Amino acid sequence: MRKQETSDLHNRLDVVRNTALLCLNNIIQKLKVDDLEGPSKLNELWLNLGKLLFETDITDVEQVEAITRSLRAVVRKLAEAKCSSYFSHMTESDLELLINICNKSQDSRIKVHMISILGIIGCLLGNINTPSSAHLIKIIGSVLLEISSKSVDMWVIAEALDALIDVFAEDYVDHIAQEINLVEKLNHILPTLKKGKIKGYRDHQVVITTTKTNLIRFIKYKNKLNRK
């Protein structure tokens, strides 16, 4: 009986913690940066949530999903406030920790959260313009390309492609795009996106369709740019 009671208590605590994390996500999305005590507090929250994520068992899907959802909200808010400087000291090891979560998880929601996080970090690093930031962008681009080409989940593929378009939207990162053969590889991925069946993705049909349209435009734009 005691074991059962202990198990029930742990389950209830997990539910409370996950609910709290989801509430945190909603609060971050709704409030302005200043209402959240400014960028420094947001960065502190980013670090604390990251620590919690890396300490959480990847098989605890609901908690990992709740944490990554909140992490995405935080980094998105930091991007809105143009706080690239907080990522100027990010190392390859730091980035690999995030990539590992994305690769190891079998849950589409978690993968999408992590893809979004990597994409936003890539955009922030693009504003720093240092050799180390360029190296990290290259890693992010390569990871997102791999996900786009190997995943069988159309939603995940669309989100990875959408993140790639955002990361490499600006002309000043074109040299990195060329290093990873971005446009050439996207041309190979495009037919998969065109042929992919989206009937089973009722909640994500708009994302998949929009990404398909944006990808075609992105490839055309980059091809014209490369011909100049």
UniProtKB/TrEMBL annotation:
GO biological process, any: protein import into nucleus
GN (gene name): Heatr3
Molecular function GO labels: unfolded protein binding
InterPro entries: ARM-like (IPR011989), ARM-type_fold (IPR016024), SYO1-like (IPR052616), TPR_SYO1 (IPR057990)
Family membership noted in the UniProt record: Belongs to the nuclear import and ribosome assembly adapter family.
Residue ranges constituting the SYO1-like TPR repeats domain according to the UniProt record: 3-225
Pfam families: TPR_SYO1 (PF25567)
Protein name: HEAT repeat-containing protein 3
